[in-house]
């Protein structure tokens, strides 16, 4: 099974996020790992972002590649992430993957929850 990959202009995978994924994949020693971004119900604003590592991409996933690593998003989550940027930030609050989402009408203070 071959997975076609393309970079939709609607979702950006920042260089800092790609570099962090690359270092985590190297640390794990598993080059098949991809960063999966998903949306779930809950959080303090209605929806929340989730991040996990996955070895597989489903046929209907959107796959975005940058610097030799992949980010995957399922179709249900992608509709909420159109136009968003997946980034990695290091600061006083700690280090984490963050979503800069223009579709979010409101977000909570933690930056992990939003409403449409």
UniProtKB/TrEMBL annotation:
Pfam families: Fe-S_biosyn (PF01521). Its cofactor is iron-sulfur cluster. InterPro entries: ATAP, ATAP_core_dom, ErpA_proteobact, FeS_cluster_insertion_CS, HesB-like_dom_sf. Binds 1 iron-sulfur cluster per subunit. Iron-sulfur cluster binds at residues 44, 108, 110. Signal peptide: none annotated. Keywords: Iron, Iron-sulfur, Metal-binding. Residues 11-111 form the Core domain. HAMAP family: Fe_S_insert_ErpA. Homodimer. NCBIfam families: iron-sulfur cluster assembly accessory protein, PRK13623.1. Belongs to the HesB/IscA family. Required for insertion of 4Fe-4S clusters for at least IspG. This is Iron-sulfur cluster insertion protein ErpA. It comes from Stutzerimonas tarimensis. The lineage of its organism: Bacteria, Pseudomonadati, Pseudomonadota, Gammaproteobacteria, Pseudomonadales. The gene is erpA.
